[in-house]
Amino acid sequence: MDDRTKATTTDPHWKDGTPVTPARHAYKPEQRFLQGPQTRGFELRLLVRIFIEFLNGFRKLHFVGPCVTVFGSARFAEGHRYYALAREVGAHLAEAGFTVMTGGGPGIMEAANRGAKDAGGRSVGCNIKLPKEQKPNRFLDIMVECNHFFVRKVLLVKYSYAFIALPGGFGTYDEVFEAATLIQTGKIRDFPIVLIGSEFWGPLLDLMRLKLLAEGTIAEADLGLFHVTDSAQEAVAHIREIAMQRFGLTYGPKIRKRWFWEVGWR
Predict the structure, then answer these.
(1) Which whole number is the average pLDDT over 225-247?
(2) Radius of gyration (Cα) for the chain, nearest Å?
(3) Which of 85, 98, 211, 215 suits a disulfide with 93, CB 3.0-4.6 Å?
(4) Spatial separation of the C-alpha atoms in residues 120 and 122, rounded to whole Å
């Protein structure tokens, strides 16, 4: 039961008649947006903000090249084995010619971006503004800052030819299943999803096989959406092979260095 169902005739109301409790005045716009009907003016203003947020992301990421998005927990610090593995993933992706895209924060995201920089590759992040944990890491060539998770999800999917997931929490699971659902329902192409860490992901795959598949809520082919490995090198080789064979990506000629008088020429 939310505030609207508990309101009495003495409660304050918005102009359109929607009841509001004093606590609702303190909500951030994105929180208030999801609290049910709001004033038309408020919703219009927020829609404009969301449009601008999308537009900013599209403009910044338009020329980043083919990306691979790396998902994983923000809570693994440098020195953790998963941090080291993600850094290795980022380096191999950069060496294979991909731009490494992450959620732009610490932990696995930082490690993958850092690995890309180690190898001289391009590093991109779509950071989400949160009260804790999520601060942009320092290994980003391009950073897009998002207020809304759904904007961030679109950007992380839109420019990617593959998805790699290392161990993580609710956010990582959400991103993995979002990608799987988009592929399953034909909303995006059948891009590879690679899960790194068989010990971590094994129980989830067992659950899908023994429960979801057994109950008929997914098909046998849906399990084939996931490739599981413990090797960063194998993960990137798998992605590179599919990207070239299935989607026609090739290695183009190196970009010629331009002299100062050529800057701005097409």
Answers:
(1) 92
(2) 22
(3) 98
(4) 7
